[in-house]
Task: structure prediction
Amino acid sequence: MTTPTHQHSPTLLKPVKPVGIVGYGAYVPRYRLPAKEVARVWTGGKGGLPIKEKAVPGLDEDVITMSIEAARNAMKRAQIDPTELRAVWVGSESHPYAVKPTSTLVAEAIGAVPNTQAADWEFACKAGTEALVAAMGLVGSGMGHYAMAIGMDTAQGKPGDALEYTA
Result:
């Protein structure tokens, strides 16, 4: 390791060129679980929860399918050709497969292949923002004009666990 000859802030990430968001997309499952039903089952109706209801994925939904829907919505807003994306990165702590990257399936589904880099990011509660910062770096460095960062999760808590009411 060498001593830098210029002054810089080690906490500041600043792209070389301007970077912005040209499109965004969201997807929330349509099914709902009322909080009062969870309280009825687990506490006999005693106690309150800080939420009214929780979105619950359908049997055929997971991080992959929900990421694809969010990505499609983002591409509609951005109005760019998916093949212009140089990266498709999915941040999640609940990827459904250990060895099949979510990002490659999303890139394929939205038509961003074959000239895009795809990778999954894992980091509890902040994988999506880490993917976003990396996308800013990729575009800000001039390595590509567009990158897609997705943050998507499903609940990982077991019934009765405090995490049951999250994600």
